[in-house]
Design a protein that fits this description.
Layout (H helix, E strand, L loop, with lengths): L1 H11 L5 H15 L9 H31 L5 E2 L2 E2 H15 L2 H33 L33 H7 L2
Antiparallel strand pairs: 1-2
Helix pairs in contact: 1-2, 3-5, 4-5
Length: about 180
């Protein structure tokens, strides 16, 4: 910040009358935070805002792309026992080290988001397995999942079963 120091020193050592020097100095302090101003410079605030929007957009796009892959592929995000989200995370984070400055931020954001998604999936799988082992039912839901008794089976004849009757019992009776 050599420029701000230079300007500040120039004002302090100038021939301006003390009253004007004081007004200019206070204004300069507020704008540049030299004297402990109360907020960030407007340009810095704009830069931080743009970066926050950019990072959020990259996270949304990365999350949506991984969700689409997970739904459209038969193996979801697992490809030959390699988690695609983890592979993308490692590749993007490693690339962020060697890429040009502007691209580094993008790669790091993508890698961080993919790593978060991988961590979420694997932690959820582990905790669900533990809860099932204890005899509990994990929370959350999968698209198309149904609670016992909430079924529509075309093979079940209404005359053979009541609402809520187990479809296995109905099938066994019809054998």
């Amino acid at each position: 910040m050599a420029n701000t120091d230079l300007v500040y020193d120039s004002i302090a050592s100038s021939n301006m009358p003390y009253r004007e020097k004081s007004i200019v100095r206070r204004m300069f302090d507020k704008m540049s935070e030299v004297g402990g101003g109360y907020g960030a410079h407007p340009r810095d605030m704009m830069d931080h805002s743009i970066n926050a929007v950019r990072q959020s957009g990259e996270a949304v796009i990365t999350g949506a792309a991984l969700a689409a892959i997970h739904i459209e592929r038969d193996g979801g995000l697992e490809f030959r026992k390699v988690p695609l989200d983890l592979a993308i995370a490692v590749t993007a984070i490693a690339a962020s080290v060697v890429m040009p400055r502007e691209t580094t931020r993008d790669a790091a954001n993508i890698g961080g988001t993919a790593l978060g998604i991988y961590t979420f999936r694997k932690t959820a799988d582990m905790l669900a397995a533990k809860k099932l082992a204890r005899g509990g039912t994990p929370g959350g839901s999968k698209p198309g999942a149904k609670v016992h008794g909430d079924y529509e089976d075309a093979d079940c004849d209404d005359s053979d079963s009541d609402v809520g009757e187990d479809p296995i019992d109905v099938a066994a009776r019809n054998l």
